[in-house]
Write a structure and sequence with these properties.
Elements lengths: L6 H13 L4 H14 L11 E9 L5 E7 L16 E3 H6 L8 H10 L13 H6 L4 E5 L2 H7 L4 H9 L3 E4 L6 H14 L4 E4 L3 E6 L2 H22 L14 H11 L2 E2 L7 E2 L2 E5 L2 H7 L4 H5 L9 H4 L4 E2 L8 H29 L13 E4 L3 E6 L2 H24 L7 H8 L2 H4 L14 E5 L4 H12 L3 E6 L2 H11 L4 E4 L5 H15 L4 E4 L14 H29 L3 E6 L12 H21 L4 E8 L9 H10 L4 H5 L10 H13 L6 E5 L10
Helix pairs in contact: 1-2, 6-9, 6-15, 10-14, 10-20, 10-21, 18-19, 18-25, 20-21, 21-22
Bound molecules: zinc ion (ZN).
Length: 684
């Protein structure tokens, strides 16, 4: 590992900081915190922390000694001034005299010692930083260091690798107890460079930002070299005949879901993120995989993202996916039962004060394929996958230099259910479609884009399918980084298959499909060319059938129900003159919706449709509105609001109708009319 320190960059951040009153030490503290944070081999997703001790003027103009320490859960790679709240140091130091202190009391003291009372909560490891005397203190969970110290003889390996420059602190749960133990070890051993926190991480310190940082890099490099000299280059044999991610993911996702007891027909689902790089594949193909799966985390705070253990499955044979699904469901059931026992046992130990988290796995290992990270959002799934990859590396290298050993199950439980750890995940109320995946066709157009946006706002992960990829990409970009644009020509069976494979590979499956893509053809029905009729049927009927079939295949593999939503338009119910080529396939689409509702109701798959009319879109352009209103002798406004309510209907209104149908778990074979009122188009 190389130092990322660049004089020019350091001086630039010092000069930039000076403009807003940030002193040199603080600017360099920000600089090296970012350097540490940007390397996933040092810290991941809010892990690790840094601090600086300095004198600053408080609000009353008095000079006080403060500890600036990373805010809890803050991302070091993007740290700024707000991510380093300043806390008065002297009250913190006095706490050392206390034998024990409760979490709430400690947080209360920290908060009342903040210079800015509105600042973020400091890191859970604040006391470790407060007790150590050094100006700069850096703490990471470097993967290579963990491989060396997560061992039954971690203390010996620490001495061998770091040669006394780092002292060894036996495992204590992060927090006040660890800080007291660490300062005790420090004062006895007086190590020159820092501390090893057993089965947890590494601390380095220094009198300058650069010194503390470069000591970290040097010590981590020593661990890397130690591993490199011992690593056996034994790639596990590749497995042949493994099923594809797109086929396996929906089965895994279904197995790792549970019925939501709060509403009949509701499921608690997770989103998946697949990783199939060489390291992950070697790991899942290893002969010791079952043992690895029972070993536990490489550092305590990973437990809140990955739980303590992954779910290990059997290799999926593409010719026997039914067997794979059956065994996967059994294994997931056993995982949940084991998690429940683990919770009960340790909750009893601490006096029944904890509330059980869901028992679903957050990491799934699939031999032959790779690993999945799981989470309630795509972002959470990515974080779980990143941590799982670090775990794979940490365990593989630990086994290369000795034998990996984690903290005890009781210690894992204490971290997993520590309120200060859980607080890192936030307490935001979940939106109604959290954990669900929605795919929308024609998502580059007005109604499709509005619908994708509405589903994303309701918490779903969304895939935007469109024959025009640039249009889908533009709409996806407006929604956010997790929204997935996919090229899809619904008139081609191969294109639809590939699009749904892409959705299943990216998110793990699909729960809601809005079949919306369409285009209008006209012609007086007795004279219209057969080619025109066929073209319209290809898009306006078969397009929906292909999309629905592809969706149902995934939904059946998941076995957690699903929802098909069709844009049938008013033409399906109330034909317009010379609109036969459009209206007739739309009427067939309405029948298609009813057939899906009938044939798949028993599988929990619902099918509904929206009958909308006169929406500004690719089918009703500004030019068309201008010419039609003129032909009728109306203003554009009167033309657009020519309905019983006298209100213009928008793409957002249609999107809300689809959203309503997605949420109405007891509604299937429904047609919702969104047209401002038109008796001739009313359902009867
Ligand atoms: Zn830590």
């Amino acid at each position: 590992m190389k130092s990322g320190w660049v004089d020019r960059d350091a001086e630039a951040i010092v000069a930039e900081g000076a403009k807003s009153g940030i002193d040199r030490d603080l600017a360099l503290r920000i600089y090296t915190t970012r350097l540490l944070g940007r390397d996933p081999k040092l810290v991941l997703h809010g892990g690790g922390n840094t601090s600086l001790k300095e004198v600053m003027r408080d609000r009353l103009g008095v000079d006080v000694e403060v500890l600036r320490v990373k805010a809890t859960g803050a991302d070091m790679a993007m740290i700024d001034l707000a991510g380093l709240p300043a806390v008065r140091l002297s009250p913190l130091r006095k706490l050392r005299a206390l034998g024990e202190i409760g979490d709430d009391e400690l947080v209360g003291i920290e908060r009342s010692s903040l210079i800015d009372p509105a600042a973020a909560n400091p890191s859970v490891e604040i006391m470790l930083h407060a007790f150590l005397p050094h100006k700069f203190v850096d703490h990471t969970h470097a993967t290579a260091v963990l491989s060396v110290i997560d061992q039954p003889d971690g203390d010996k390996k620490c001495a061998e690798v770091f040669g006394g420059r780092l002292a060894f602190v036996p495992y204590v749960m992060p927090g006040f107890g660890l800080a007291k133990k660490a300062i005790e070890v420090f004062e006895r051993a007086k190590p020159s460079d820092g501390l090893i926190l057993s089965k947890h991480g590494i601390v380095t310190y220094g009198e300058s930002a650069r010194e503390a940082y470069e000591r970290m890099i040097e010590m981590v490099s020593r661990a890397e070299d130690f591993i490199a000299r011992r690593r056996k280059a034994t790639a596990a044999p590749a497995r042949r005949g493994t099923a594809e991610v797109a086929q396996v993911a929906p089965i895994v996702r279904g197995a790792c879901s549970e019925k939501d007891a709060t509403a009949e027909g509701a499921w608690r689902r997770l989103v998946l993120e697949f990783r199939g790089g060489e390291a992950a594949r070697n790991f899942v193909n290893a002969k010791d995989l079952d043992r690895f799966g029972r070993l536990g985390v490489i550092t305590p705070d990973h437990t809140i993202r990955t739980k303590n253990w992954p779910l290990v499955l059997q290799p999926p044979d593409p010719a026997k996916l039914g067997d794979f699904a059956r065994v996967a469901h059994e294994a997931a059931g056993q995982f949940a039962a084991r998690y429940h026992r683990y919770f009960e046992q340790h909750n009893a130990r601490v006096g029944h004060i904890k509330h059980e988290l869901d028992p679903l796995p957050r990491v799934v290992l699939v031999p032959g394929l790779g690993l999945f990270g799981l989470g309630r959002t795509k972002r959470d799934a990515e974080i779980a996958a990143d941590i799982a990859e670090a775990w794979v590396e940490g365990v593989s290298d630990a086994e290369a230099v000795g034998r990996f050993e984690s903290i005890s199950e009781a210690d894992m439980f204490d971290c997993e259910y520590w309120p200060l750890e859980q607080a890192k995940l936030g307490t935001r109320k979940e939106p109604p479609l959290a954990g669900q995946i929605a795919a929308v066709t024609g998502a580059g157009g007005a109604i499709g884009a509005a619908t994708a946006k509405a589903f994303a706002a309701a918490g779903a992960e969304v895939a935007l399918l469109d024959v025009n990829f640039a249009a889908a990409r533009e709409q996806a970009k407006a929604i956010g980084p997790s929204a997935l644009p996919v090229v899809c020509d619904v008139t081609s069976a191969a294109s639809v298959r590939a699009a749904f494979d892409a959705v299943a590979s990216a998110f793990g499956g699909v729960d809601i499909v809005v079949s919306n893509a369409g285009a209008a053809w006209q012609g007086r029905i007795g004279e219209v060319d057969e080619d025109v009729m066929r073209k319209s049927f290809e898009l306006n009927f078969y397009g929906h059938q292909r999309v629905a079939q592809a969706a149902v295949k995934i939904m059946l593999a998941q076995n957690t129900g699903g929802c098909l939503l069709f844009n049938v338009s008013k033409q399906a119910v109330n034909p317009g003159p010379n609109f036969g080529p459009y209206g007739i396939p739309k009427a067939a689409e309405l029948a298609l919706m009813r057939q899906y509702a009938l044939d798949y109701g028993a599988d929990g798959i619902r099918a509904n449709a929206v009958n909308a009319d006169r929406i500004r879109s690719g089918l009703l352009t500004a030019d068309m509105i201008a010419s039609r209103s003129k032909a009728r002798g109306l203003s554009e406004k009167d033309y657009m609001s020519g309905n019983l309510l006298g209100r213009e209907v928008t793409a957002d209104d249609v999107a809300q109708a689809f959203l309503h149908q997605a949420l109405a778990l007891k509604t299937t074979a429904d047609v919702t009319t969104v047209d401002g009122g038109n008796i001739a188009a009313a359902m009867r």
